[in-house]
Amino acid sequence: MRNAIPVLGVVAAIMVVWYLAAVWMNAQWTRDQAARAGIEVSFADIVADTLAQDRPRLPAPHQVLLELHALTWTEEVHSRRGIVQSGSLSNRSLVHHGLVTLSATFLGFAFGAGFGILLAIGIVHDRATDMSVMPWAIASQTIPIVAIAPMIIVVLNSIGISGLVPKAIIAAYLSFFPVVVGMVKGLRSPDAMQMDLLRTYSASSFQALWKLRMPASMPYLFASLKVGIAASLVGTIVAELPLGGAGLGTRLLAGSYYGQTIQIWATLLVAAILAATMVGVIGAVQRMTLTRMGMAQ
Amino acid sequence: MSAAPRPHWARPVGVGLAALAALAAVAALVSPGMRGTLAAILTDPRSAALAAIWVGIWLANAWLAARPPPSALVRALVTLLFGATLLLLWELAVRLYSVPAVLLPAPSAIAARFAASLDILWIDFVQTILKGALSGYLIGCSAAFLIAVLIDRSPFLQRGLLPVGNFIAALPIVGIAPILVMWFGFDWQSKAAVVVVMVFFPMLVNSVEGLKATEPMQRDLMATYSAGYWQTLVKLRIPAAMPFVFNGLKIATTLALIGAIVAEFFGSPTRGMGFRISTEVGRLGLDMVWAEIAVAALAGSAFYGLVAFIEKRVTFWHPSQRGR
Q1: How far is A95 from chain B, CA to nearest CA, in Å?
Q2: N- to C-terminal Cα distance for chain A?
């Protein structure tokens, strides 16, 4: 809690800069409108107007929060299409689009992380797999895979695979390699002395895996799971760009086509909340696991 | 060792086959449609041929890998052999099953397209990588490093900015691309802006960590020389920060390419790798798309390799770089 005050200070500073930037960037539009209408505007008028425009260049923080509230709570509870009155989530609300994105992210992440762990076990136990696959796994991290996500989506769509699965494939692919690389490091982290001890017990390689390598790899596993789930979310959002259906990526592109800046920012805020929550949940599981295993610092 | 040792490759191959069989059994149990597909695959001589090639080269690799001690040359050979096998299987699968080119072009077709459209690829490379990604990378990384040096003087800012920076580094920042494209227009300036924002926070966090990486003994030595803040910074702390800084620089290379390419999906002039990918997908020119992907892969590896090479020259003293 020692960091609470500095963090709050930095966040407050960011907010102040954001408001100043909003006034500065939106002022031109206000002056143009006033000049067209032939009225003089005072500085106070400019400030009031720049923080309340419909399509500002940079919306003020409170506008983004109000939009977020309108597109989640108001839309679902009070709107005709919301879940309270129609029984299903509104297709305008960010709850609906967020859940679509989240389900693809989770599905992909589960598969990517699962196969990543299996491949890492294979790499640690078999030298041929290690020498064949590992350099490619490392090299693939330097390739901007996420940039080709839309193409994979379109191709899979054209052969009739649509909906959740193509996005999940991208998400799985993106979380796969961080988990492989981190997990190999973790499974190799027991030192020679510990491995020798197990050999004197004449432990089989499966016992060594289960009783030494797996527990020793937990810190590495959680670190790479955090990276992996963040990558999965980015992959899903980018993969949604070419799709016309639902999802946060689709909302971003729609907002950019129609100049709905406030909606773009609200969507970004939802994406940020999702990412922070998922990384936070994994971090909490990590703390609980490591504490129970006696490995927490 | 017993009299008739089991071949070293028997267990991995056996485990792999057992896992495949288990997967197939689960799939067959779950859906009747999968059962038909599986039966068709299993009885098809074409898939047998592909499987034979796979197993054959895998055995060769296992044999090479098991000869102790594997030299650097053998290691490279095993890796390249594996990569070449994947390409060969891809080529053969596309030809044997006559997969339409609008779904998956063969590697040979992609190579042919690559060679035939070098001029277009070069224009896209200049637009996206050199103008968009590289300028954004240089601006973002140097700005982050300078700000790291500044906030390093203030413990308050360090404790405040590091958690915020770590938080922002985990966010899907690429989502701000549509906003920056609105602000900076369709040309490379908006792509560079996206790249600046994407590389800034990983670089900032790593630089701040690095500037803290000196040991008390080293700082005491500088104090006994009565070195001032700037002398300590230039002669001790910045060199000591270099391993962390290069870690940030390496992470940022991939992010820079991703940012520059993805930002083009939100609007671009009629050139650039992201523009080409999205329009060629629309025209079903998948061989061109794959050629662009090959360019992105080559550029990404080369960019990363360049930074790693400079790292090796700059941080030659660090334990991770010694003794190889």
Answers
A1: 18
A2: 17
